[in-house]
Amino acid sequence: MVNSLRRRILRATALAALIVLAGWFIFTQVNNDGSTPAILATALAPWIPVGAAVTAVVALIARARLYAALSLVLVLFAGITFAVFPQWPAAIPADAPRITVFALNAYVQSADATSVIDAIRDADPDVVMLSEMGDINRAAYIEAGLAEMYPYSYFVDDELWLSGGDIWSKTPLANPRRIEGGTFPLLAAETTVNGVTVTVVSSHMYSPLSNRDRWRADHLALGDFVASMAGSNLIIGGDFNASRGHGPFDSVRNAGLIDAAEQTLWGFQRTSWPHEPVPLPVLTLDHVLASDNFVVESTEFYEVAGTDHRAIVARLALP
Q1: Residues 32-48: pLDDT tens digits?
Q2: pLDDT in tens, 245-282
Q3: N- or C-end of the chain: fewer Cβ atoms within 10 A?
Q4: Burial level of 205, CB count in 10 A (0-12/13-18/19+)?
Q5: Where along the chain do its domains lie?
Q6: Is the peptide bond before 274 cis (omega within 30 degrees of 0)?
Q7: From CA 279, how far away is CA 129, in angstroms rounded?
Q8: 98-317 homologous superfamily
């Protein structure tokens, strides 16, 4: 009697969860960025396969095989749609030229200098891309050793939005410029690393929760730049305030670019926000995108004190 009641409760729970998760998935497919709820639902959608997998286990315990099968179908469909499974890139030749980039949102100049520099030293990137920068934290990072490690730099401070952008490099930067149309500074420059010339872009998009039109316009400006650089070795890193499934972000990513984290990490390993005040990142807002002639060797995230974003580090190669 007790076991029968328990199974009925578990069966009802599995059915309710399946309906909610399936409805959530369908909602993201018909309205992924038309409203604040849709934007949030899409940003959190990579967790649907996780919920569906748990639902399948509950259904199996309740001996509800149909619910379990439907849950596993949802795991598959949502997992593919939101690329929660790693792509497992092909082996990279040992002599292939490599480049490593580091991108961080410094949270309105609040990221702790020691923590930032420690993360950069540990990751040892060739290029560092920073957003939400300004005179105060830039001076602190330079004092902590940033300019000694990266003698070449290009940065623009935005007096209107108080959110500057930086590119720091071990190798000389050529043709530094601000990409037109971005709310915050979208910065680009060329640099040559291990014999390969690469265009690097420091990215920061407006929050869609504050102004969806600005958010879309920022992605459109970046997309136009990507289109103008067709055929180039291109790497873009930073805070996109967007995830796979958001139309504006997908339009940029689908223009011949790959998402580094998607190549080597499971969906739950790619989350970057919020890191502070509670270290419970559930959204994937920070990305490194690269032209599809690159192969991703690894992607890592670093926790940095004083900012609500985790830093992303991508190690790329040209086979």
Answers
A1: 788 999 999 999 999 99
A2: 999 999 999 999 999 999 999 999 999 999 998 889 99
A3: N
A4: buried
A5: 2-81, 98-317
A6: yes
A7: 22
A8: Endonuclease/exonuclease/phosphatase (3.60.10.10)
